[in-house]
From TrEMBL:
The keyword Metal-binding applies. This is Protein FAR1-RELATED SEQUENCE. GO terms for cellular component: nucleus. The lineage of its organism: Eukaryota, Viridiplantae, Streptophyta, Embryophyta, Tracheophyta. It is found in: Nucleus. Residues 561-608 form the SWIM-type domain. GO terms for biological process: regulation of DNA-templated transcription. It comes from Elaeis guineensis var. tenera (Oil palm).
Length: 740
């Protein structure tokens, strides 16, 4: 808020300090090509480094100043428009850094210049104190960093939901005073900040840089400011005021806390914020283990009344839902969704899933075909049920049995004939022949109905989605009436709670011994599967006792069998090849869920085979699914910046220390030993960091890194004491232990 200080006389030329601030002196005699290096020496590296996903928007400094170049937008400083280049007596200077005695035609020109400087450095500008003459002419004005000062507390007022503090008492400022000629001269310039600065590529999203964006784009393109693509407007959702700043504040804070944190921001052709995507290191690691099946949940999208939030989720070896990445999608066009898919793939080290499940959306389908052509796309049957609850709301509320019948039809029918019969019976029972939505749904049944997708591996994710709807847990915090920063607090809480549950499940799987009947195949499964998966396996195994098997004939090493389930009189055909112990069932449960079926168990028992062939025990369902380093041959994202190098090294170190943590957790003695040695290691690392300069970005990453010295010797010694398998536990930077 502006503060009027009353009439004041103009300050004379003699009263102007003759010295330059230290930072200005450092920059005065440098060429424009070295300006970026000058800033790098004055500010922390993280202030000037853009995320890998945004680094392509940064341009090298030009002789006229540094430009942060974006599609249809440049932040190069137009000195002529500011009244500087042709009408100012300015001492020799690179041109874009303020300095004492710089003069401007008016206050607006000074503000525009300082605001452009702020965009290059990475902060937002606010007008502060002003002085006027007796004739109400501006005598002096101080322009400050938006984080200047501190928020005033109102006496006797305690808000129910206090906003996060944004001011830090930052001293950075520029003061101008009027001269006898009527122009304004810089009499004070303080470049120092006491807070983290925004990346140059994202600084333009701060409040003081958003106001002129639309006008600048229009000026560059020759189009009127309100011209836009009608289709894009249809697919876009207006971004509430303050959302961009809140999201960027959260993302940049997370990246400071964890260098491996990945985020990306998409700017559309109109230079407006379109999408945000982010994923932390644990999510990326989880994806390497369980990223074969991904559900892209956009059920809470722009057509709803809240913010357009989306999740990339999967299922781990405990049948728990895990988060691979998150996004805010203010633009749902095909081009925008393709950007999101490409960005997700980049974040996950170039690895795309085998199967992706989505909502019913033509834009998503088109984007997937273009971005992930080798990935199988299926409509998630759970999303079909959720959509039905919206489109058939009156039917659900008007009948006590419709929910059961509809759910049984889409979730329980395994064969095509069974599905068609159940669908027809449901339509007739509730008189829904004229329902257009159901008619269209049935027409598209090949893309979502279970009998038509049995050959596609989906990790039985539908059952996990039925139990856990993560977006519904966050939905109430996404209202446009609420600020966005509290949502991120709830998001982080949910993420940490889920990871604690995963940690507990890992501990339970590694320590508890399941009591199973004295049957070799059940013992085999109990030893390798997690308890949650073993429960599913055991259920199928027990059901084979109700099956009847008939030998249909042999052809060389191949034998065919017909298996009938007594209670439903269903026929399934099983083929066994004795040459390689391969076995196949027409129900395709193993192909879709990764767990063998009762029909196969019946045939194996018929042939007196008492153990399941190892090829049919998927590692993704095993207790040791996350044991050891990830066998991933995909290349890292291009390491053209120090940030990407640090992120890659951070991921490699997670793999190295995971084995050490797993062994040390076995006993109290080994845990205590590692805990004490970790303090010594940390001291040594801090000593190295203090005595050596930071590496330049052009360094290369070793293709493989192995634990050495203390780590290697400790692991070797612990292996002598503990020879049993275990899950691998590491401790993240935020103090919460995760399992890998």
């Amino acid at each position: 808020m502006e503060e009027r200080m009353g009439p004041a006389k103009c300050e004379s030329e003699a009263e102007t300090p003759t010295h330059y601030p230290t930072h200005s002196l450092l920059a005065r005699n440098r060429s424009a090509s070295s300006l970026h290096q000058t800033l790098a020496s004055l500010l922390p590296v993280s202030h000037l480094s853009a995320p890998p996903s945004l680094s392509r928007f940064l341009a090298c400094p030009s002789p006229r100043g540094i430009s942060a170049v974006f599609p249809s937008l440049s932040f190069s400083i137009n000195q002529q428009a500011m009244g500087v280049a042709e009408h100012a007596d300015v001492p020799p200077n690179p041109g874009w850094i303020p300095h004492l005695d710089m003069q401007f035609d008016n206050e607006d020109a000074a503000y525009a210049f300082y605001n452009s400087y702020a965009a290059c450095v990475g902060f937002s500008v606010r007008k502060s104190k002003m002085w006027t003459t007796s004739k109400d002419v501006l005598a002096a004005r101080t322009l400050v960093c938006s984080k200047q000062g501190f928020r005033q507390k109102k006496k006797g007022f305690e808000p129910k939901k206090p906003r996060p503090a944004t001011r830090t008492g930052c001293p950075a400022c520029m003061t101008i005073k009027i001269t006898p000629s009527g122009r304004y001269r810089v009499t004070e310039f303080v470049p120092d900040h006491n807070h983290l600065l925004a990346n140059p590529s994202t600084a333009r999203l701060l409040r003081s840089h958003r106001a002129k964006v639309k006008e600048r784009i229009a000026g560059d393109s020759g189009m009127p400011p309100d011209s836009s693509d009608k289709h894009q407007l249809k697919r876009r959702k207006a971004m509430p005021v303050g959302d961009a700043g809140a999201v960027l504040e959260y993302l940049q804070r997370m990246q400071v806390e964890n260098p491996s944190f990945f985020y990306a921001v998409r700017v559309d052709g109109n230079d407006s914020i379109a999408n945000f995507f982010w994923a932390d290191a644990k999510s990326v690691m989880d994806y390497q283990y369980f990223g074969d099946v991904v559900c892209f949940d956009m059920t809470y999208k722009a057509c709803d009344c809240g913010r357009p939030f989306a999740l990339f989720v999967g299922v781990n070896n405990h049948k728990q839902m895990i988060i691979f990445g998150s996004a805010l999608l203010y633009d749902e066009s095909v081009e925008s969704l393709r950007w999101l898919l490409d960005t997700f793939k980049d974040a996950m080290r170039g690895k795309q899933p085998k199967t992706v499940l989505t909502d019913q959306c033509m834009e998503i389908t088109d984007a997937l075909v273009a971005a992930w052509p080798r990935t199988t796309h299926r409509i998630c049957v759970w999303h079909v049920y959720q959509n039905a609850m919206m489109h058939l709301n009156q039917v659900f509320e008007g009948s006590k049995t419709f929910a059961h019948d509809f759910g049984q039809c889409i979730f329980d029918c395994e064969e095509e004939e069974e599905f068609v019969y159940a669908w027809r019976a449901m339509i007739d029972k509730y008189d829904l022949d004229d329902n257009e939505w159901l008619a269209k749904l049935y027409e598209d049944r090949l893309t979502w109905a279970l009998p038509y997708g049995k050959q596609v591996f989906c990790a039985d994710i539908k059952s996990s989605l039925q139990k856990e709807n993560l977006i519904s847990l966050l939905k109430k915090h996404l209202s446009p009436q609420q600020e966005l920063l509290p949502f991120f607090e709830h998001y982080d809480t949910l993420l940490n709670e889920r990871r604690c549950l995963e940690l507990q499940a890992d501990a339970h799987a590694g320590q508890n011994i399941l009591k199973v009947p004295p049957l070799r195949m059940l013992k085999q499964a109990a030893n390798v599967y997690t308890p949650a998966v073993f429960k599913l396996f055991q259920n199928e195994f027990e059901m084979y006792m109700d099956c009847m098997v008939y030998h249909c004939g042999d052809a060389g090493t191949i034998s065919d069998y017909k298996v009938i389930v007594d209670e439903k009189s269903r026929e399934h055909f099983v083929r066994y090849d004795s040459s390689d112990s391969s076995i196949f069932c027409s129900c395709k449960k193993f192909e879709s869920a990764g767990i063998q079926c009762r029909h196969v168990f019946k045939v194996l028992d018929y042939r007196n085979i008492k153990e399941l062939p190892p090829r049919y025990i998927l590692k993704r369902w095993r207790k040791d699914a996350k044991l050891g380093a990830v066998t991933d041959h995909h290349e890292y994202p291009s390491a053209d910046s120090s940030k990407s190098l640090i992120a890659n090294r951070d991921n490699d170190l997670c793999c190295i220390f995971s084995t050490l943590a797993a062994r040390a957790a076995k006993t109290v003695e080994s845990f205590t030993f590692i805990e004490s040695q970790s303090e010594l290691l940390l001291e040594q690392v801090e000593h190295i960091l203090q005595t050596r300069t930071f590496e330049i970005p052009q360094l290369t990453i070793a293709s493989s890194i192995q634990p050495r010295n203390l780590i290697e010797s400790v692991v070797e010694s612990l292996n002598h004491d503990n020879n049993t398998d275990t899950n691998v536990i590491i401790s993240a930077a935020n103090g919460i232990s995760f399992t890998y």
